[in-house]
What we know:
24% helix; 157 residues; alpha+beta
Amino acid sequence: MKLLLLLLGAALCMGAEYIDKTATSRVANAPLTITVTGIKPNHGKVLVAVLDRNEFVDAGSKVPKYYRLLDGKTMEERAVFENLPYGEYAIGCYQDVNGNLLLDKNLAGIPVEDFAFSNNPSAKWKKPTYDQSKIAYSNSHHYFPIVIKPWIKYWNE
């Protein structure tokens, strides 16, 4: 019985080492680069967040694990994420005109600051789903453009 427990313990230790090496190997060699266009120069910083499925569902309730705050001084800026594991993510961004680090909305819940999600899903009356917004970040797919715009432009699509 002691031998069985010893062998089981050794197998678990070897399995943990294998899992740890596998997780480490998923860290990206190519940084994730997001080019944000549609910025209104000098109208506020641009927050770019890379969210996994759980963070996307809870967006706005806590600070995302992966985000960049861009200056917002030009019409096009880049957010670069190093050491991000390859996988599926959704990208969300907005131009924070009043500097409160929140996507402000009016009484009807409509965003009053320019915003966007990856894949440009329809965002007229509700937040898009994770599946509509997800991207597959890999060594061969590591550059993603995104265009922020006011809510009314989503209405016209």
